[in-house]
Amino acid sequence: MNIKDSWLKEGFVNEPISEGLDLRAEIKKLKQEKNAIIMGHFYQKDEIQDIADFVGDSLALAQEAAKTDADIILLAGVHFMGETAKILSPEKKVLVPDMNAGCSLADSCPYDAFEAFIKDHPDHTVLTYVNTTAAIKSLSDIIVTSTNAKAVVDSLPKDEKIIFGPDRNLGNYLNSVTGRNMLLWDGACHVHEKFSVEKIVELKKQHPDAEVLAHPECKKPLLILADKVGSTAALLKHTIQSSTKKFIVATESGIIHQMTKAHPEKTFIPAPPKDSTCACNDCEFMKLNTLEKIYNSLKYEWPEILIDEELRQKAVKPIVKMLEISERYGL
Ligand code: 13P
Ligand code: SF4
Asked: How far is the CA of 207 from the centre of ligand 1 (A)?
């Protein structure tokens, strides 16, 4: 197999990096030469967040992708984030450094089964979380992220019948904070479901002055004991604005990098998962991205996200609705 065939097979450019190459400087040079922007999610490795031109949550990444004037968007995140960028900016080249960066939550919502679920409930509005494939988005009426989900639900008439998918934990949480009774798809994120409530309660006993922060993809018992529930952006904002000095953070540990940068004097304790000796909880898909892969991806402009135009035109409508509602609510 020649080297390019092996790239295709592996889903990323695995060309070895020459010894002594200053990756950060080379990435910067490539970005300038090609008018490329590097956008990174909060769950990326610290060194990737530090070289990114833009770091944010899923909503901010979509908003930035819709307005950037770069010719190339390199999305350091997972596949559905690259797809969302491509759907919003079809004229741009969208790269994801490793095509294997999937999402267990998106995988928990297969097209045929979700389509059948919608057909079984024809009089329902379909809200789906952004952590889905382009095909699922094409079946949806409005997309939400954890930052704007409550605002989107609140924007709908009180008696509207709603299907929400794919995250059952976020769906349950939204039902409780909006007083709705949305019909939920039974999907979940393996990272957020594996936090150990027992270990977090233990940590809280050791650090009674700490606040527990949790992403709404976590299970209900953890959301009940949390002092603050919110998207990555909302949790970060809370740590910046709060006078509290110590936090137990129940979401992917990458977010702690921005929290620490904003407040190096505060203490951030990653919440531990169950059935593991690890002290923190990482998303292995998010962590597939490396500086080496970003360099190779920019150099060879591959792997590229490509979406069938007919599918894109269907998928863009619910995303644009989400962006309009977000703007209306100042999000
Ligand atoms: P945010 O929208 O809060 O960034 O979450 C993205 C995600 O993948 C959570 O697991
Ligand atoms: Fe998907 Fe969970 Fe990873 Fe987020 S943390 S990208 S929801 S698998």
From this structure: 26
Give, using CA atoms, the residue closest to atom 6 of ligand 1. 58
Q: Which residues line ligand 2 (CB under 6 A)?
A: 78, 103-105, 131, 189, 191-192, 252, 283, 285-286
Residue 231: pLDDT band (50, 70, 90) is very high
| Ligand 1 proximity of 63 Cβ (cutoff 6 Å) | no
Please state the domain extents for the chain: 3-102+286-300, 105-189+313-328, 195-270
pLDDT tens column, 11-50: 999 999 999 999 999 999 999 999 999 999 999 999 999 9
8 A C-beta contact, residue 62 and residue 88:
yes
Gyration radius from the chain CA atoms: 20
What is the average per-residue pLDDT within 182-192? Answer: 97
Q: Which fold has domain 105-189+313-328?
A: Rossmann fold (3.40.50)
What CATH class has 195-270?
alpha beta
| Cα 73 from Cα 94, distance rounded (Å) | 5
